[in-house]
Amino acid sequence: xxxxxxxxxxxxxxxxxxxxxxxxxxxxxxxxxxxxxxxxxxxxxxxxxxxxxxxxxxxxxxxxxxxxxxxxxxxxxxxxxxxxxxxxxxxxxxxxxxxxxxxxxxxxxxxxxxxxxxxxxxxxxxxxxxxxxxxxxxxxxxxxxxxxxxxxxxxxxxxxxxxxxxxxxxxxxxxxxxxxxxxxxxxxxxxxxxxxxxxxxxxxxxxxxxxxxxx
Length: 215
Hints:
Blueprint: H1 3-11, E1 29-30, H2 35-41, E2 45-46, E3 50-55, H3 67-78, E4 86-90, H4 98-103, E5 111-114, H5 119-131, E6 135-141, H6 147-160, E7 163-169, E8 181-187, E9 193-200, E10 207-212
Parallel strand pairs: 3-7, 3-8, 4-5, 4-6, 6-7
Antiparallel strand pairs: 1-2, 8-9, 9-10
């Protein structure tokens, strides 16, 4: 096969991200719970893909941004297989505040928190959780810049179909990443408002959204 034809065939793979190219059958999504963010993402948080949230500092409301979708996923599992309704948090920098999670609609009996001392342990735990196929969502906090390890997580997310989110330091923005969705999260102008910059997503150009997580 000529090299040009081989390249064209490779580029037809929907897993190959190309800026501005619509992706047919991009996959399932879960609504974010924020209309402006849904529009910026083209429908909602993508399932079966790796999502990176790049933040200046932890604890500024970035987890609150995800709570509506987590609750929706747990409720969805209530109507199907209970075994797949787990939400796993790996290496959170702070102990999650259970009453706030319950008020947001999360079923605490299906919430698993994994503590890891090293990034290597964090990445291993995420991969195992995804491979178990028992999780509706896996969230992890990591400082790794190991692109090969991140690629393994992307493949595991594709195979398991779970919503997979990695929180990373904003300084990782310039580093390469296989994540199909990357979002820069910064403090907004007032109160609990977050300014979101969609740096990369399948099937669409960069976008911006402002979300008031304190509403």
